[in-house]
């Protein structure tokens, strides 16, 4: 098995993934991919895009929505099954778990000008329920998938998905 790694993946961020590839005897050349981060030469129509956590995925799907949608459309137009593998961990194993996500940007500490005391105030940041609905719609509309794993499992999960398919 040969897994091509996108050249925009930062070597420092994927050290453990490369260790897993090496441990399993998988060659991993680095070159730019049209979409995503990891592709098996034996099945170039299945590509994985790694996300470090739900905050990154939320930023992509919400703040960078148009760029994200264009990438999904590009994959769809080229018959590529794009899988987003989110290393969030913490009990998140499937898309429906996203409903329970607590966005760290949802609450902000600020000093009350009248009392001088620090208070938690709610922001308009995306909730887990809203993010779930957005991701679920993207799956239906573009045929992509959102999968989850622990950070320590990422290398093995990439290999499993690219070897076995979905």
Structure characterization notes:
With 166 residues, the chain is an alpha/beta fold. It contains five helices and seven strands; from the N terminus they run βαββααβββαβα. A five-stranded mixed beta sheet has the order 1-2-3-4-7, with helices on both faces. A two-stranded antiparallel sheet has the order 5-6. A hairpin with a 6-residue loop joins strand 5 (107-111) and strand 6 (118-122). Helix 1 (15-23) packs across helix 5 and helix 2 packs across helix 3. The protein starts with a strand and ends with a helix. The model has no long low-confidence stretch (mean pLDDT 93).
List the helices and strands and how they pair.
Blueprint: E1 3-5, H1 15-23, E2 38-40, E3 43-51, H2 54-63, H3 65-77, E4 81-86, E5 107-111, E6 118-122, H4 128-142, E7 145-148, H5 154-164
Parallel strand pairs: 3-4, 4-7
Antiparallel strand pairs: 1-2, 2-3, 5-6
Helix pairs in contact: 1-5, 2-3
């Amino acid at each position: 098995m040969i897994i091509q790694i996108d050249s925009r993946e930062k070597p420092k961020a994927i050290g453990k993934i490369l260790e897993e590839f090496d441990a399993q005897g998988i060659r991993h050349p680095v070159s730019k991919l049209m979409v995503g981060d990891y592709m098996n030469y034996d099945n170039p129509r299945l590509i994985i895009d790694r996300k470090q956590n739900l905050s990154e995925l939320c930023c992509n799907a919400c703040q960078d929505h148009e760029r994200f949608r264009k990438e999904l459309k590009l994959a769809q137009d080229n018959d590529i099954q794009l899988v987003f593998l989110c290393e969030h961990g913490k009990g998140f194993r499937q898309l429906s778990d996203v409903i329970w996500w607590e966005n760290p940007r949802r609450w902000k500490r600020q000093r009350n000008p009248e009392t001088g005391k620090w208070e938690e105030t709610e922001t308009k940041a995306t909730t887990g329920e809203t993010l779930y609905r957005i991701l679920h719609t993207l799956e239906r509309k573009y045929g992509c998938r959102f999968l989850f794993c622990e950070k320590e499992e990422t290398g093995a999960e990439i290999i499993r998905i690219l070897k076995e398919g979905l």
